[in-house]
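It is worth pausing here to work through a concrete case rather than discussing structure prediction in the abstract. The textbook approach is simple: state the sequence, then state the predicted structure, then interpret. We follow exactly that order.
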Amino acid sequence: MDCYDINLKHLAYFSKVARLGSINKAAQLLYISQSHLGKIIHDLEKSVGAPLLNRSRQGVTLTPEGTAFLEKATLILNEMESLHFHPQAPGATPETLSVSMTKFSHVMESFISVVQKHSEQPEFTHRLYEGQVNEVVDDVLQGRVDIGVLHFHRARREAFAADLAAKGLSYHFLAYAEPRIVISKDHPLVRAHKSMTRENLAPYGFVRYLGLYDDVLAQLWGSAFSQDRLGGKKEIFVTGRATLMNLISQTDFYSVGIHDFDKQLSDFGAVSLPIPGCQASVEFGYITLQGVPITQIGQEFLHEVQAALTHEQTD
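Step two, the predicted structure:
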């Protein structure tokens, strides 16, 4: 396998693991699952053609090849860092909206709504990126965007906010939301008026984003959720929201989300149904660089997002 195909982000993941001496600790700081990070490191070793880490119950240490690889990876990452432009001083034009977000249609619809309201401007440049939590954090840190909108299990709020502050980022709360099962209105369980329990859902396929919602799913399903599994044997991992929604629309697969977004039923024929006995809660918030004010259009966008997230579903 050609080592030139190595993902730069995976180099950063490897660097984090090497410096912490633990895949588990690195996964927590990167906001991805331990199994997913372990696979990334395994694939990286396969690409390089040599073991990079010694693994034990106490953690990981670098092999001689790993030490040499880390030195080269650090040089590459530092060079890439120097290519990014960091945000300018306060006073950016209010017509520019630059956002990075974890995958949620509620946030996407808010972005579209604000952009459309300002479409009469003679000139504008807007940017929207989607990714995992650590990618959103990185986009704000590197100055690619002004605002990062993300979600996580509310129990992680204190540790999460502290980690962001150590990085020079400010965290701001937006809303809490209850997890729901997103499923076709024509699904056999819906037609039979069955409740959305793990037992009832087990025979059907679960479609999800790779690395997202792991903390919420673990809280929902307890010990049944391990090694990226929801308790069943049918899973599809996707990277795009449209793909996820189309799969739900055209199959008997289901996913986990929150209350309906505006076009969920009309465009995809999907509904969001409550999970019996659910005690989990998803927290939504946004991050910015400390000391950098939010533009007028950015404030308008955040107002739209908060309204979309706190919208009460009418069953």
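Step three, interpretation. The chain has 13 helices and twelve strands. The longest helix spans residues 64-83.
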